[in-house]
């Protein structure tokens, strides 16, 4: 990721990758109950950004620590394989999404969806996994969460 002009890709897909890498590290440290909801958020972000249907994952198949690590690796590789220019051209497009049970669907610009729904949802699940594991005595610190976000900028 460049430290020059930030693009839609830089502010969405690259941030989602950092979030998933942070979760992968947290899961590696913890080897405990991972929160599979993060994968739903990441695949929905990519699908909505590209105007596609989201990939379906069988959440019931996440029965072991190894399953969780494999799933994280799959989702990270999918996001890393996205064409940056395709994402950057989507800033003028829109997506229609549900915002909760018994609430009407809303149409948002693709950037508004990414910044106001998808990314906050990803952050929420990564932070909750971190907080729950830390409250149960897993030796996690701030750098376990933050380092994956800094990595693309480190020389």
Structure at a glance:
It comes from Akanthomyces muscarius (Entomopathogenic fungus). This protein has 155 residues and is mainly α.
Features:
59% helix, mainly alpha, two-stranded antiparallel sheet, DinB/YfiT-like, 155 residues
Largest sheet: 2 strands, antiparallel
Question: How far apart are the termini?
Answer: 11 Å
| Unreliable residue stretches | 32-40
Global Rg? 16 Å
Structural class by secondary-structure content: mainly alpha
The beta-strand count equals: 2
Shape: globular
Mean pLDDT, nearest integer? 79
Percent in strands = 5-15%
N to C succession of SSEs: HHHHHEEHH
Helical fraction = 55-70%
Quickly count the helices: 7
Protein name: DUF1993 domain-containing protein
Organism: Akanthomyces muscarius (Entomopathogenic fungus)
InterPro entries: DinB/YfiT-like (IPR034660), DUF1993 (IPR018531)
Secondary structure topology:
Layout: H1 8-11, H2 13-30, H3 37-50, H4 65-80, H5 84-88, E1 94-97, E2 106-109, H6 110-135, H7 142-150
Antiparallel strand pairs: 1-2
Give a written overview of the molecule.
With 155 residues, the protein is mostly helical. The chain has helices at 8-11, 13-30, 37-50, 65-80, 84-88, 110-135, 142-150; strands at 94-97, 106-109. It has a two-stranded antiparallel ribbon. Strand 1 and strand 2 form a beta hairpin. Mean pLDDT is 79; it is low at 32-40.
């Amino acid at each position: 990721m460049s430290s020059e002009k930030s693009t839609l890709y830089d502010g969405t897909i690259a941030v989602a990758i950092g979030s998933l890498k942070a979760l992968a590290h947290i899961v590696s440290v913890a080897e405990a109950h991972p929160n599979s909801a993060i994968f739903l958020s990441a695949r929905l972000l990519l699908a909505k950004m590209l105007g596609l249907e989201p990939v379906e994952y069988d959440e019931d198949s996440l029965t072991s620590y190894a399953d969780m690590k494999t799933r994280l690796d799959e989702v990270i590789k999918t996001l890393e394989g996205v064409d940056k220019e395709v994402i950057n051209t989507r800033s003028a497009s829109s997506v229609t999404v549900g915002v909760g049970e018994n609430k009407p669907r809303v149409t948002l610009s693709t950037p508004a969806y990414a910044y106001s729904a998808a990314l906050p949802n990803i952050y929420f699940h990564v932070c909750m996994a971190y907080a729950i594991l830390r409250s149960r005595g897993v030796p996690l610190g701030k750098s376990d969460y933050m380092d994956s976000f800094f990595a693309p900028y480190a020389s």
